[in-house]
């Protein structure tokens, strides 16, 4: 359960529930519902009552701050039929927090020491908001702060072990395999037999920004058994999908590219038009990128393409800036100017304006990769239905993937 007006109005995305759901599954429990509720004490209390009636555990985040719209404590009190009382333990922890930082405690923070009677304190090592733990006759309710860093630390320190002990007794293991280059439907077809419901491990797919991730969730009586089940499926997924698999877990395309560049001792430079430096940014997001990234050119205008990359003016006049010929010339000129093993170039129409259908619609992008063997160009029709940011992001991902495949010895396109 995630609490806060900023969540129900869309101002803030609820990432806490997704993180907690995975933590719960790993510990052998099953998530029945994810609920988001605004800052309304009756609504909060009502959802708490439902949760306590329907599940063994209720875990909530948010609404434990020091202001008038932080109503989680009052919602718990109303749900279980008790009053709020000042907790000496909670107050002592809050005061100690400010003492460590050598700051006076604002009067408002004393509100955070008001806990529903009969509830215990969940220590918060990273902030002022104590968590609340209610142990009922058949169910337990744990309320944690909405700040992700505080919530995660408190869950790990105080909640995880108890939740695992109270669950089925089986140990869960979750792995994620990340792919790029195939639609979700095609990936799903390749592993359809592994995705049969009620199968252990459970296998499913998630799509985000062109990346298709395959989740493999296994459960067994021991961690070793669960890991073995999951490892077998992960190996099978990798074998079936081949080169479209680029990494596991939180690994992004740029991490896979960085690993390969470092292992090969190769260097890269970028020449960007429509992506405006995004490609260079992602390649340098990885620590240690100075070992392989030499420089980047943002050549948004035709004049810059000619002056910095040596793209012939008559080529631009003949084919236009958004063309395979210009993308090839950009990549070739970039590699020569930077003296690198590889060069990546992008040119396209990111929109929302500037398209001339059907020949040059919004979403038309050319990506080029230059290396010692020559230049390869890929023509993308990403679609005007995507936003400007999505088109730029997808183009930069295709460029990174072309480089990844080249480093692996696979065809770039």
In short:
The chain is of the alpha/beta class. It has three domains: 2-166, MoaB/Mog-like domain (Molybdenum Cofactor Biosythetic Enzyme, Chain A, 3-Layer(aba) Sandwich); 171-248, Alpha-Beta Plaits; 253-408, Alpha-Beta Complex (Maf protein), CATH 3.90.950.20.
Report on the structure:
There is one protein chain. The chain is of the alpha/beta class. The protein folds into three domains: 2-166, MoaB/Mog-like domain (Molybdenum Cofactor Biosythetic Enzyme, Chain A); 171-248, Alpha-Beta Plaits (2-Layer Sandwich), CATH 3.30.70.2860; 253-408, Maf protein, CATH 3.90.950. The chain has 14 helices and 17 strands. Strands 14-13-15-16-17 form a five-stranded mixed sheet, with helices on both faces. Strands 3-8-7-6 form a four-stranded mixed sheet, sandwiched between helices. A four-stranded antiparallel sheet has the order 10-11-9-12, sandwiched between helices. A hairpin with an 8-residue loop joins strand 6 (120-122) and strand 7. The two termini are 44 Å apart. The mean pLDDT is 94.
List strands and helices in order, with pairings:
Blueprint: E1 2-3, H1 5-8, H2 16-26, E2 36-37, H3 41-54, E3 57-61, H4 72-80, E4 84-86, H5 88-100, E5 114-116, E6 120-122, E7 131-135, E8 140-144, H6 148-166, E9 171-180, H7 184-190, E10 202-208, E11 211-220, H8 223-241, E12 245-248, H9 253-264, E13 268-272, H10 278-284, E14 293-298, H11 302-309, H12 313-319, H13 324-338, E15 342-348, E16 364-371, E17 374-381, H14 388-408
Helix pairs in contact: 2-6, 3-4, 9-14, 10-14
